[in-house]
Specification:
The chain has 544 residues and is of the alpha/beta class. It contains 15 helices and 22 strands. The chain is globular and about 70 Å long.
Length: 544
């Protein structure tokens, strides 16, 4: 790839920096202690707006102070994030009538249902059901699953991911194997609301969803958080949710439709939405609680250009109390994301030990990531430090706990010049950058860097690959699959003294180097010209 002259010069200086600068050691003790503490049962899974939040923030302030950071929000460690908690009660079965066989799906077991609307009761009765394929309206790609159908007041049934997710290459109308934002459940509910649907139900399928039903069940039951905004989200659908694949097949059979044939048809441009000829009914009551959660903000002020900022971010929250497994109802979130917060503290310690850089370095712990990136979204929309003056940075969401890797993965590769800048730091460890092994999971749209990217700030999201120095690709892939299947978003995501932190320390050394280079430099890395975030960044910087 040909580099623009400015990028080439910056890359050369980065290479020199990587070769000549020795970073302060990343503290293994900090990584272990902070992870173990935050993921202990005492913190009750770190759900926002609970006693677990209070303990979490108090502990993180203590660690930030000890590291040598300053309060980052006008003398305060915190940024209030207004949230509203909605808890569904007395949830009825999701009933489908009018077909060959009436169906009544059980809450949690067969389906989950919720609402973005801040309303005391949801009651949907006899809503016509329409299968809308992948539920995508993408004019720039010549694709509209809602073309020719009016779904106002109706219930839409939607497939997860993109139509070409089974393509093993990155070629296709939606990027082939790599998920686009059109494949994310958040988009599908947003588009259903724009189309006026009363209810939007996604069919769960483990591979294209990238997680099993247990993850859906634990994430979509119990208290649900949303940003507390004027209008109470009444422009959204009344109901949003998921159903298991087997009940979905039974629904299509009851409607006299060929499930497999319709799934195949939905993969192709020109697909027409199919009314199923059945009606949906569901109701429940909501307990509503408004409160503010908090982002935590620390800063290492710059020595020469304190009004320019480099950002490190991670989320401190997890799911709190969740559906019990073997009697354990605390989702401790040790890897996701106590380890990320431990990394934020360890990087703060290292940067302070190195002394102030020319630019300021901000350490941001955000809330409510698990509820839809709400804390980072709020910060990006209400920044403590102007986004036009934020150079870029690194987001961390879980770290390597299985040992050193030969490779390093850039998630959402091909978007920003930070990818060029990080290469020398990866090479300095004798490692290679490789493509995402599972681009179909849409990881780029699932963590807090996305909130900043949408508003133009280049943020690197990278992690160890699966090619371990001990055990190779087989061992790395096995470890990844084991975590997703057995621990991700479950009570089993607990700290263990058996974790191997060597790979995490190597990754954090890369993040340290990149952040330090940005903070000591004068350049402003941008998005590549064809990246979807380039225009907003150019506009932001032009108006600074």
């Amino acid at each position: 790839m040909r580099l623009l002259p400015a990028v080439a010069l910056l890359l050369a200086s980065t290479a020199a920096h990587a070769q000549t600068t020795t970073a302060p050691a990343i503290s293994l003790d900090t990584l272990k202690t902070v992870t173990k503490t935050l993921s202990s049962d005492e913190y009750e899974g770190r759900a926002p707006a609970t006693a677990g939040e209070e303990k979490t923030l108090a502990y993180l302030v203590e660690r930030f102070q000890k590291a040598g950071l300053k309060p980052g929000n006008k003398g305060s460690w915190f940024q209030d994030v207004p949230l509203v908690e909605i808890t569904g009660n007395n949830v009825s079965k999701l009933a489908f009538t009018g077909g060959k066989t009436p169906l009544a799906l059980d809450y949690r077991k067969d389906m989950v249902i919720a609402t973005y609307r801040v309303t005391p009761k949801v009651d949907i009765q006899n809503s016509d059901v329409v299968f809308v394929g992948y539920g995508i309206n993408a004019p720039e790609r010549g694709w509209n699953d809602y073309a020719g159908v009016d779904v106002k007041g109706k219930t839409v049934v939607i497939l997860i991911n993109d139509p070409d997710w089974q393509t093993m290459t990155l070629d296709g109308p939606f990027g082939g194997r790599a998920m686009t934002y059109y494949g994310r459940w958040t988009y599908k509910f947003e588009e259903a609301a724009r189309q006026g649907a009363a209810a939007a139900i996604i069919i769960h399928d483990t591979e294209p969803a990238a997680y099993g039903w247990g993850v859906v069940q634990s994430s979509w039951t119990g208290p649900q958080l949303e940003q507390d905004t004027p209008g109470d989200h009444m422009d959204q659908s009344q109901a949003i949710g998921w159903i298991q694949q087997e009940p979905a097949k039974a629904l299509f059979a009851s409607a006299g439709k060929d499930y497999a044939a319709l799934i195949e048809a939905a993969k192709h441009k020109g697909f027409k939405a199919v009314p199923l000829g059945v009606k949906a009914s569901v109701s429940w009551e909501n307990t509503i609680r408004r409160q503010a959660s908090k982002n935590i903000v620390g800063i290492l002020p710059g020595s020469a250009k304190p009004g320019e900022y480099v950002l490190y971010s991670a989320h401190w929250d997890h799911l709190g109390r969740c559906d019990a497994v073997d009697g354990d109802d605390i989702c401790n979130g040790a890897l996701d994301n106590a380890s990320g917060m431990a990394s934020l503290v360890a990087l703060a310690e290292a940067q302070v030990k190195a002394g102030p850089a020319k630019r300021s370095i901000v350490f941001l712990g955000v809330t409510a990531e698990e509820s839809g990136l709400l804390g980072s979204k709020y910060y990006a929309e209400n920044p403590v430090y102007p986004l036009a003056q934020t150079v870029g940075g690194v987001n961390m969401d879980g770290v390597n706990n299985v040992g050193r890797a030969k490779d390093f993965v850039l998630v959402g590769v091909g978007k920003s010049e930070l990818e060029d800048l990080v290469k020398p730091f990866v090479a300095a460890e004798g490692r290679v950058i490789v493509p995402e092994p599972t681009p179909e999971k849409g990881s780029y749209y699932r963590s807090d860097h996305f909130s900043f990217a949408k508003l133009g700030v280049p943020m690197l999201y990278g992690e160890s690959g699966e090619d371990l120095r001990v055990g190779g690709k087989e061992a790395g892939h096995k470890a990844s699959e084991d975590y997703i299947e057995k621990r991700y978003h479950k009570p089993q995501d607990e700290y263990s003294d058996s974790w191997n932190w060597d790979g995490a320390i190597e990754d954090l050394t890369i993040f340290y180097g990149l952040g330090r280079q940005l903070a000591e430099g004068t350049t402003w890395p941008n998005w590549y010209p064809n990246a979807e975030f380039r225009a907003v960044r150019d506009k932001s910087r032009a108006g600074k």
